[in-house]
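re: ur question from yesterday

yeah so i grabbed the chain u mentioned. its 327 aa long if i counted rite. heres the sequnce exactly as i have it in my notes:
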Amino acid sequence: MATIKDIAEKAGVSPATVSRVLNYDPELSVGQETKKRIFEVAEALNYTKHKNKQKSENQLFRLIQWYDSEEELADLYYLAIRLGIEQKAEELKVRLIKENLDELSEDKADGIIALGKFDAKQVKRLQKLNEPLLFVDFDGMLYGQDSLVVDFQQAVDLVIDHFIKTGHEKIGILSGIEYTKESRNEIADPRKQFFQQRLTRLRMFQPEFMIAGEFTVNGGYQGMKHFVETAHELPTALFASSDALAVGALRAIQEAGLKVPEDISVIGFNDVSVAKYISPALSTVHVPTEWMGELALATMVDVAREKAPVPRKITIGTQLVLRDSAK
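ran it thru and got these structure tokens back, copy pasting raw so excuse formatting
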């Protein structure tokens, strides 16, 4: 595991600055470029490269992202996937052109990697380019498109099984709120759906322990702060739909004079590079984001090389990583 000192040396800043950035210190005033450099260095140093020799195709792919650079820093999930895509492209000597969905170039590409969440109008706009299309972190099967997605049900089961195994009966969730960019349609959080279904089957579901916030550190903080201040009873275990939400929740819990994990065990989702550096170190569901990005690029090479008779959906599994924030 890379240390804060290692990250500081590579990013050209002080260890104190790195520590405060990785802990999302709200009182720290540093520029977006510095934050971006620190987060990208942290991801790169903590990433175990998965070598997979493939022949270079000298291809050109569009990379369409729904997150801008500022949003990437608010929740590092898509930043990590993007880095994996870029690293694999460099390894295979594949050229990437990063484009905004609203400003697509007239250049002809061998395929499109669409990273993020898209509504029907946006999908149709991408399909009009008549280029092989792969969605990453979005299920495009309904539109007849290839997709690379995470197994959220398996992830939720891992978390709930651990909470039950460690004696928790009052289990809550801090789910995420987000919208498509253009139509502003709310995107349902699949973790919330599977969480409710599983606990209902177990006769353990308690709707009063359902909390929500935007997929940011501040969203998690505000959602959890309001809940702690108004709830009649608190859960002893909390699952957050992203590490960013979990980091915000930890701050709100600690500000309320409660201890983690003694009063509330917290488990996040994604296992972004900063999870191990915050205090207490965050237990989380590990999504192999950089490898997911690599797999997306490798899959795009295959999709562009030969048209398949039917769309494919590749589902990525997850692992539970236990650190200090959960018993």
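noticed a couple things. Residues 289-305 form the longest helix (17 residues). also The two ends are 22 Å apart (CA to CA).
anyway ttyl
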